[in-house]
Amino acid sequence: MRFVYLLLLVIIMVFGVSFAVENKDPVEFRYFVGSVEVALAWLLVLTLALGALLGMVASLGVVLRLRRELRAQKRRTGEASTSTPREPQATHAAPEATHTEAEATHREEVP
After folding, report:
1. Which residues contact 42 (CB under 8 A, 6 or more apart)?
2. pTM metric for this prediction
3. In the chain, where are the structural domains located?
4. By C-alpha distance, which of 46, 66, 64 is closest to 56?
5. Which of 41, 36, 1 is nearest to 17 (CA)?
6. d(Cα 23, Cα 26) in Å, to the nearest integer?
7. Mean pLDDT of the region 5-17
8. Phi, psi (5° rounding) for residue 31?
9. For residue range 52-104, what is the model confidence (pLDDT) as tens digits?
10. Distance from C-alpha of 21 to C-alpha of 19, rounded to nearest angstrom
11. Phi, psi at residue 86, to the nearest 5°?
């Protein structure tokens, strides 16, 4: 599995480098306070990184709320398990053992 991840990483890196080489021409990036000339590849990479960062910040509230709920649920479950004794779980025989016993019984009955 590591090989697949490594191969995927190498393929993405090759595409990234070829993208940067093909889009090295400078473009003018204008914003409210001024403008700057930057390579198109860098501008797109920075835009992608900024979008990923904003996405993580936007989902941070949901993640923190879910972690808090999970922690509270674990506390409640821990309290419940200490206050009520657990019933012992039934053990089941392995299917192979049952099958082997049935075959042995069948062999004994057949003349």
Report:
1. none
2. 0.52
3. 2-80
4. 64
5. 41
6. 8
7. 90
8. -140, -175
9. 999 999 999 999 999 999 999 999 888 766 655 556 566 655 555 555 555 55
10. 5
11. -85, 145
In the structure, how many helices (H) and strands (E) does the chain have?
3, 2
**Token pair for residue 99?**
């099958």
Q: Is 94 left (phi over 0), alpha (psi -120 to 50) or beta?
A: beta
Which position has the token pair 């490594």? 6
> Which pair of structure tokens corresponds to residue 74?
């674990």
List C-alpha distances in Å: 16 to 5, 60, 70.
16, 28, 39
Specify the amino acid at residue 110: V
Rounded distance between C-alpha atoms, residue 65 and residue 72, angstroms: 11
List Cβ<8 Å contacts ≥24 apart for 79-87: none
